[in-house]
Specification:
This protein has nine helices and nine strands. By secondary structure, it is an alpha/beta fold. The strands form two sheets. The protein has a seven-stranded mixed β-sheet, sandwiched between helices. Strand 3, helix 4 and strand 4 form a beta-alpha-beta unit. Helix 2 packs antiparallel against helix 7, helix 3 packs parallel to helix 4 and helix 7 packs antiparallel against helix 8. Bound molecules: S-adenosylmethionine (SAM). The site of S-adenosylmethionine (SAM) has 20 residues, from helix 1.
């Protein structure tokens, strides 16, 4: 049996998805407030930039993978109009339900689907844009998921991967201190769960850096890949074109 990492722990590959599900089952109801607190609202700017780079048109077909509480799905839905379609998906029912309720409260009725990014239930060459925000890090086989994302994109379609990345060297110490001391305490105070926020800090350290992820996306079928660092590399937006 093969092993993989869940944060800094080594776990059996078949067990990782179960551990990840535990994290998001636990944090779903406090996810949005924690995002605002942890990032001091910066996640809104990172997502706004992602939507700008998506450059959607009326009528675009969009797939939001690991869409969770629906920030990107909602922003995309505003751009594609009545003739377009945004499919809001996630592997976790609690996250997806929280997102669906929020979307409905704002007047958006989107197709919402529980699905695993590693086995997407969509035909080949179907979407103009596919997005995955802060989700790839949690997937067991990132290469398999990226290949699936490439498969469901139309030729010349665009994949947007918004994810934590490697922070600039001068900020490393302060960022580590914040991640391993403050995040778990905030998690405990707000969501009653320090372990999930320790996992967040650890999983960021285990995720491929900017150049590594770019190489992985190329190996997974994207002809052109570029990345845009944000907040000194705390986060990067990788853009892959299927060509
Ligand atoms: C940190 S949340 C991101 C939610 C949202 N995209 C955002 O940016 O706020 C990560 C999401 O990835 C989802 N996820 C983890 N593994 C997945 C998989 N294999 N397929 C689809 N979604 C997955 C989790 O259930 C969780 O909702």
């Amino acid at each position: 049996m093969s092993s993989t990492h869940f944060g800094f722990k080594t776990v059996d590959e078949t067990e990782k998805a179960k551990h990840v599900r535990g994290v998001f089952d636990s944090v779903a109801s406090k996810y949005d407030v924690m995002n605002d607190l942890m990032s001091a609202g910066l996640h809104r700017l990172w997502k706004r930039y992602t939507v700008m780079v998506a450059d959607l048109r009326e009528g675009s077909q969009v797939l939001d993978i690991a869409g969770g509480t629906g920030d990107l799905s909602m922003a995309f839905a505003k751009k594609v109009g009545k003739t377009g379609r945004v499919v809001h998906t996630d592997i976790n029912e609690a996250m997806l339900r929280t997102g669906r309720d929020r979307l409905l409260d704002q007047g958006f009725v989107l197709p919402t689907l529980v699905c695993d990014a590693e086995k997407l239930p969509f035909p080949d060459n179907h979407f103009d844009v596919v997005s995955v925000a802060f989700g790839l890090r949690n997937m067991t086989h990132k290469d398999v998921a990226l290949k699936e994302m490439c498969r469901v994109l139309k030729p010349n379609g665009k994949l947007l991967v918004l994810e934590f990345s490697k922070v600039a060297k001068p900020l490393e110490k302060a960022y580590d201190w914040y991640s391993f001391n403050i995040l778990p305490k905030l998690g405990q105070m707000i969501a009653g769960d320090d372990a999930s926020y320790r996992y967040l800090a650890e999983s960021i350290r285990m995720h491929p850096g900017q150049e590594e992820l770019k190489a992985l996306m190329k190996q997974s079928g994207f002809g052109h890949v570029d990345f845009h660092n944000m907040s000194a590399g705390v986060v990067a937006l990788h853009v892959g074109i299927k060509c």
